[in-house]
Amino acid sequence: MKKSILIKNAKIVNENTTFLGDVLIENEIIKEISSEIAATQNLEVIDAEGKYLIPGFIDDQVHFREPGLTHKATIATESKAAVAGGITTFIEMPNTVPQATTQVLLEDKFTIAAKDSYANYSFMFGGTNDNLEELLKTDPKKVAGIKLFLGSSTGNMLVDNEEILEKIFSSTKMIISVHCEDEATIRKNTQEFIEKYGEDIPLKYHPIIRSEEACYLSSSKAIELAKKTGARLHVFHLSTAKETHLFRNDIPLEEKQITSEVCIHHLWFSDKDYEEKGTHIKWNPAVKTEADRLGLWEALLDDRIDVIATDHAPHTLEEKSNKYLKAPSGGPLVQHAIVAILEKVKEGVISIEKAVEKMSHNPAKLFQIEKRGFIKEGYFADIVLIDANKPQTVSRDNLLYKCGWSPFEGTTFSSTITHTFVNGNLIYNNGVFNDEIKGKRITFNR
Questions:
Q1: Where in the sequence numbering do the catalytic residues fall?
Q2: Domain Amidohydrolase-related spans what residues (predicted)?
């Protein structure tokens, strides 16, 4: 018989408070939370003295590259890195090969995850200009949502037919998550820089090519359409201060029809970092100015921005070492997402309670995920122990990503994730993984 687990003396962070207490885990579930739970013989006890216990990070945007792009990453490798970083649930994007634009192809990804994923998982169905009928078959209780690329997509996933777009927005009650960058603006800007520099455009011009204007034009148009049709819209990876003013903070998250996300890299880096980091911080949308970075923090703290995510999107070092036009955008982030945010907690930028709200509580609320995202009795024990006084320096030899590099290489973080529980199972324990147990497909209360 599997032993129940008792976590003693933890600094429990949940629903805007931090308190000292014990947590009892039994059969995947949080059975009891109390200031003092007696340790009995049939309990495995973990003494968490001095450590934070938080609900696992629910990352609402990752690219784990499987199927079809497995030279970059797989669901197995990246979910392993994710649990080492305290991410217990991820929602993965449809732009794999083939793209998840039919129900059959979507279910193929769930089959791979059931076999290989260390973390809990869901996937998004990808909308195109011609798959509305398939899109409408998506089961809201079993699938995270719909993903639309309104800019910067691979394959045929750019939805640029305005009539179709309006039809999608009008036809589904599911959350529509969007990547917003205006393609015409980007094409025009790219052409101007090609005329000036040829193939070898200096990377510092990336945020000028993929400009504030390109982002704002696209996101404001999507919001206008959502208001017109009553669609439930979620805008991914805001990168400009200007866009944050399109969102409201005067009503609770549960009542919002239009929500937004910010990613770790847009909170951490600015255009000053291109010189040192080069293509390793080339993302779409681009990392922009210091003023944009500060504006994103401000909007996150005052609740115009609802969630933090990673947009984890690995490429090989060989791919990344190409010149500007050929180097792909995206980078790996899941292994150090929480510790990066905890660095900002240490600096006094954000409180740990607010960080947990944005990484765990709010994604669960926003996507209506059943029984996850909180440390509550009766909820799944997706929880993470953190030693805030155990520094770590990121280097190639301690990375778990298949691509083998990180934009954080050389960075020393003050905190270390020591234990990650997924559905009550201790999947990660001070560098050691339980490879026998896999995560679960999450369900939605809709």
A1: 311
A2: 52-426
The confidence score (pLDDT) of residue 229 equals 97
Question: For the domain 57-366, what is the CATH code?
Answer: 3.20.20.140
Give the separation between CA 264 and CA 269, rounded to whole angstroms: 8
Q: CATH number of the domain at 4-53+378-391+413-433, please?
A: 2.30.40.10
* pTM higher than 0.90: yes
Single out the residue of 75, 79, 236 nearest to residue 145, CA to CA.
Answer: 236
Tell me what the mean pLDDT of segment 421-433 comes to: 98
The yes-or-no verdict on residue 159 having pLDDT over 90 is no
SS3 387: strand
E strand or H helix that includes residue 60: strand 57-62
d(CA 47, CA 45): 6
Which pLDDT belongs to residue 156?
75
Domain range summary for the chain, segments of one domain joined by +: 4-53+378-391+413-433, 57-366
Q: Burial code of 339-356, b = ≥16 C-beta within 10 A, e = fewer?
A: bbbbbbbeeebbebbbbb
Backbone angles phi and psi of 256, in degrees to 5: -75, 135
Sign of the C-alpha dihedral, residues 359, 360, 363, 365?
A: negative
Q: Do domains 4-53+378-391+413-433 and 57-366 have the same CATH topology?
A: no
Residue 41 has what pLDDT? Answer: 85
